[in-house]
Amino acid sequence: MNDGREGEFFSPIKFLVVISLTLIVLAVVFSSAQAVSAVPPSGTPKQAPQKFFTLGNAEIRSEADSVYFRLRGPKPEKTPFGIFRYIRVTGAWETLGTAASFNEPIAIGAAKFPPDEFFYPRLGYQEVEILGKTYRMDTTDERAVIVARTDGKDLFMVSAQLPPGKEKRAYRFRYLTPGRLWFDMRIEKDGRTFSEGLGFFDISTHEIRLIPPEKLVPDPKTPFIITEISGRRDEVWVGIAYCKEQECLSDGIVLKISADGEVARQWFSGEKGIPPGTVLRVNPDDDGLWIVTTNGITLVNNEKIRCFRISEKAGILDGSVFGLSPVLSKMGLNVAKGTGFIGGKLVETKDIFFKIKPERAARLWVSEKDAPAKFQIASSSIRLVPGQTVDFRPEPDMSAPAASFEGPREPRISLKVTDRQTGWLRAEISDMLWFAPDGVMLSVEEYASFPANNFLSQPQKP
Fold first, then answer.
1. What is the 8-class DSSP label of residue 243?
2. What does the pLDDT read at residue 299?
3. Of the candidates 270, 215, 259, 260, which has an alpha carbon nearest to the alpha carbon of residue 233?
4. What is d(CA 347, CA 265) in angstroms, rounded to the nearest whole number?
């Protein structure tokens, strides 16, 4: 679990900035799971987001007037969905970047920031520097070890005994609260990564406290991974992906850790307005608590619970790339400018393609000179011959820009004929359009909200 930058030194100021930024969640899939013995408490019923908007990665940065999100789809494609901004004063969302501009600088006022610097994705730190002293995280077969170095001298602190096992341990610092360094206890086993707990190091007392799995998840034997450690002032929030029944890393938990290192609150995804699925991000700020799961975004405070998702409506960029079948995989064609694809409804995704029903009919012309080698003509339709290349044009004119398409081997595709001119056929292709993400502009919308009834302040039920 190395992003190539773990272990580098950084200044106290940089560290304090970094801890408020996002940490990329790596989606890790386990091949087996064990049933969860505990049953999460029932929650408020709510409308479930569409499954084809599943998130696999989320990064968040909170600023005074806005909250910024950088969203991707799940593995293996990790399709870029875009960069979005939530405006605090209006509660509205704005799309700042598409898949095509996913890695381009983000403009904030007169300044521009590269996304990786703006969100500063990082898995954790093996070594940190605070007020002139460095702290390094290590492990032995039986203990967690923190080495504090100052004036060239090393001081070794060790934890209580770790859980038994010979797995490779990769403990990393993830968050700093006043006087405490919090770390993630990740281990690698059989090529997979999961967690065996969470811990913190008290900078003043040199105590190393370990929080075992039985305090974090319903069943300590259930595989899980800590996806997030964040906070605000002395608050610490933890996001967890865990295995439930026969599906692994498909469910999530949000935890609030008290000052004494105990779990003070526990919410399950799919309950209390939190979208179902793995918890990807937990980010407290002035508006409340932002929770991102694989199925959506929730903002929770004591007054209201608001649920958001990637919108079903998608803007289609002029000159974008599309295919006529998901069978194409990554093949496609350039749509000539002027064809009028201005927007539509996102109805399905497959691999890296989005299937979109345009707001208005999408029709292109093909020349009858291509028949019969490339398509078969019927009274009201044309049928593309598998494996043949057909040129689509915005006008019945051979000099018009062509969008060449190689038909898939299977299945055969039939298109409705909507108009005829001498030597030309106009085909209805609205139901067959598959757009690559570079040609699609997504947005975020609110799909549900309900009173919170002081939800964040309510004591945890036993």
1. E
2. 94
3. 259
4. 37
Distance CA 18, CA 8 (A): 13
What is the distance between the alpha carbons of residues 354 and 322, in angstroms, rounded to a whole number? 9
CA distance 155 to 201: 14
**Cis status, amide bond into 114, omega within 30 of 0:** no
Sequence spans of domains, the chain: 12-310+448-457, 313-441
Q: What is the value of pTM for the model shown?
A: 0.80
CA angle 252, 191, 4 (to 5 degrees): 85
The tokens for 455 are 């939800």
Nearest 5°: the CA angle 385, 389, 392 is 105
262-265 own/partner pairs: CB under 8 Å, 24+ apart: 262/215, 263/211, 263/215, 263/216, 264/460, 265/460
Count of H-run helices and E-run strands, the chain:
2, 38
Instruction: Give Dmax over CA atoms of the chain in angstroms.
Output: 89
Please check whether residue 435 is in contact with residue 362, taking contact to mean a CB–CB distance below 8 angstroms.
Answer: no
Give 65-81 pLDDT, tens digit per residue. 999 999 998 888 888 99
